[in-house]
C-alpha cells in the first residue's frame, strides 16, 4: 500500500505532517540550534568584556580582545560540554583532553579574530561595537565547525592526531 506523500499534486500537507516534519528537523539539528543560543551568550560575554576593557579601561585592541577571548571561551567550553553537545558524546576522552583540543582550535580562531578587530577598529576606524559583532558572527561559524569535532564521536583528522600525541605523552614513562 502506497503511503500518502504530501508532494503529490492535489494533496495538501496536514498539520500533523507539518508537526512531524518540524520535530524531525529540530531533532536532527538540535546541536546547532542549542549552539546558536549558547554561542550568542558567549558572544555577549565576549563583546561586553571587550567593550569594558577597550572603551572604558582604554586597553589596546589586541589586549582587550585577547582577554575577552579567554573569558568568553572558558564560558563557552562549559556551555558546550554541559549544554550543547550532550548526545552522541565522546566518552573516551577526559576533560583535560577536551579542553586542550578546544583551546587549540580556539587559539586558531583568535588569529582572524584579532585581525578583524585590528583592521576594523585601527585601520578602518569603524565603531568597535559594530566590528565586534561582525567578528563574533564570522568567528562563531568557524568555532561551531571545530567544536563539534571535539565533543562528538565524529572527531576529525586533526583531533585524532592530537589524541594520539596526547596519549603518547600520558603513557610515556618518567625515569
Report on the structure:
The protein has 175 residues and is mostly helical. The chain contains six helices and no strands. The chain has helices at 15-28, 30-56, 61-84, 95-123, 128-151, 157-171. The chain is flat and about 65 Å long. The model has no long low-confidence stretch (mean pLDDT 81).
What is the percent of helical residues?
Answer: over 70%
- How many helices in DSSP terms? 6
Unreliable segments of 5+ consecutive residues = none
Query: What spatial form do the alpha-carbon principal axes imply?
Result: flat
Number of strands: 0
Radius of gyration, taken over Cα atoms and rounded to an integer in Å: 21 Å
**Helical/strand content category:** mainly alpha
How much strand?
under 5%
Average pLDDT figure: 81
Determine the N-to-C terminus distance. Answer: 72 Å
Task: Supply the key terms.
single chain; 175 residues; mainly alpha; 6 helices; 76% helix; flat
In short:
This protein is about 75% helix and about 0% strand.
Topology:
Blueprint: H1 15-28, H2 30-56, H3 61-84, H4 95-123, H5 128-151, H6 157-171
Helix pairs in contact: 2-3, 2-5, 3-4, 4-5
Amino acid at each position: 500500500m502506497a503511503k500518502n506523500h504530501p508532494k503529490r499534486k492535489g494533496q495538501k500537507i496536514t498539520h500533523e505532517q507539518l508537526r512531524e516534519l518540524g520535530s524531525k528537523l529540530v531533532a536532527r539539528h538540535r546541536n546547532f540550534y542549542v549552539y546558536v543560543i549558547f554561542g550568542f551568550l558567549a558572544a555577549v560575554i565576549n563583546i561586553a568584556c571587550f567593550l569594558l576593557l577597550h572603551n572604558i579601561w582604554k586597553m589596546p585592541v589586541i589586549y582587550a580582545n585577547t582577554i575577552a577571548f579567554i573569558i568568553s571561551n572558558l564560558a563557552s567550553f562549559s556551555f558546550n560540554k554541559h549544554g550543547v553537545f550532550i548526545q552522541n558524546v565522546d566518552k573516551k576522552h577526559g576533560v583535560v583532553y577536551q579542553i586542550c583540543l578546544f583551546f587549540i582550535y580556539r587559539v586558531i580562531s583568535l588569529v582572524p579574530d584579532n585581525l578583524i578587530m585590528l583592521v576594523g577598529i585601527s585601520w578602518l576606524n569603524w565603531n568597535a561595537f559594530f566590528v565586534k559583532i561582525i567578528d563574533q558572527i564570522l568567528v562563531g561559524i568557524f568555532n561551531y565547525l571545530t567544536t563539534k569535532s571535539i565533543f562528538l564521536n565524529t572527531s576529525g583528522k586533526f583531533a585524532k592526531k592530537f589524541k594520539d600525541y596526547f596519549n603518547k605523552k600520558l603513557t610515556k614513562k618518567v625515569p
